[in-house]
Amino acid sequence: MARLEWELIEAGHCVHPQRAVRQGASWHRCEFPALVALLRHPQRGLILFDTGYSDAFLQATARLPERLYRWVTPVHLGPGQSVRAQLQQRGIGAADIGLVVLSHLHGDHVGGVLDFPDVPLLCSRAAWQDQAARGRLRALSVGLLPALTRDAAPRMGWLESLPEVDLPRPFDAFGRGRDVLGDRSLLAVPLPGHAVGQHGLLFEGADGRPVFLVADAAWSSAAITDGVPPPRLVTALLGHTGTYRQTLQRLQQTQRQVSDLQLVPAHCGQWRPAATP
Fold first, then answer.
1. Residue 167: what pLDDT?
2. CATH 3.60.15.10: does it fit domain 5-271?
3. d(C-alpha 232, C-alpha 242), whole Å
4. Which run of H or of E encompasses 251?
């Protein structure tokens, strides 16, 4: 089975209190990076997992009611910090990306989709249908900004249409996965509770260690280790509290059983790249 090289790119960050993402934590305001994963498959080339913030996100939230998104979680995106700009700094053009996999459709994960206009996309059909069924305010209330994916339908593929495969133990606690590339090197794993249709990615890194990109199933590595979820109000507003906590518990159990596992939440400061523009 192919091993994948991978690295994380910080495409902006937002600021909000620790207590919003960790039950019982302080009200101290912290930065939460929007982490995008760049994967390199030996035959299939470059793949992005999520897209972070971008100028398109700032434009989509410039006016009310969408402006409320930035008031609740103030966003900081420095010059040249979008994922597309950082790839260009590495000599990688948008056309060099072979696939973008979206963990879910919240604005901080799909913010850069429009920067890759010709690249095939993958997301959950259930997530797409849920977004399409919501009006403007109902979408905003759960962190969705449909304008950021308005042109995506013709190039969107569905995770649910991919071949279903058994996950290796102990990852089988999450159910069955989807074979993203057809060689079982990259598996999409359902991570319910935070948002409709959320999936993570499981693969073997170039060093042989398993890597599990878990999107927003947890906001930090410490939350997984300690088993501490966000407050009920937060998870109830965005998704389903009971399901979220069950997923977090499964992540904690999996971490305990796989000693060399790299579990990567999408907004964890511990995984923040050492240097960003």
1. 97
2. yes
3. 9
4. helix 241-257
120: region left, alpha or beta (phi > 0 left; psi from -120 to 50 alpha): beta
CA angle 99, 216, 184 (to 5 degrees): 40
The HSE-up count of residue 271 (CA atoms within 13 Å, CB side) is: 29
Owner of token pair 């606690």:
173
41 dihedral zone (left: phi>0; alpha: psi -120 to 50; beta): beta
- Token pair 């950082």 in the structure block, residue: 86
List the one residue out of 97, 84, 101 whose CA is nearest residue 12: 84
Please say whether the beta carbons of 87 and 45 come within 8 A.
Answer: no
What is the DSSP secondary-structure string of 46-86? EEEE-----HHHHHHTSSTTTHHHHHHS-EE--TT-SHHHH
Pairing of strands 97-101, 45-49: parallel
Q: What are the structure tokens assigned to 14, written together?
A: 């937002």
- The dihedral region occupied by 9, where left means phi > 0, alpha psi between -120 and 50, and beta the remainder, is beta
Q: Which of 20, 38, 37 is nearest to 29 (CA)?
A: 20
d(CA 11, CA 49): 12
Q: What phi, psi does 10 have (nearest 5°)?
A: -90, 115
CA distance 32 to 12: 9
pLDDT in tens, 138-194: 999 999 999 999 889 999 999 999 999 999 999 999 999 999 999 999 999 999 999
3-state secondary structure of 173: helix
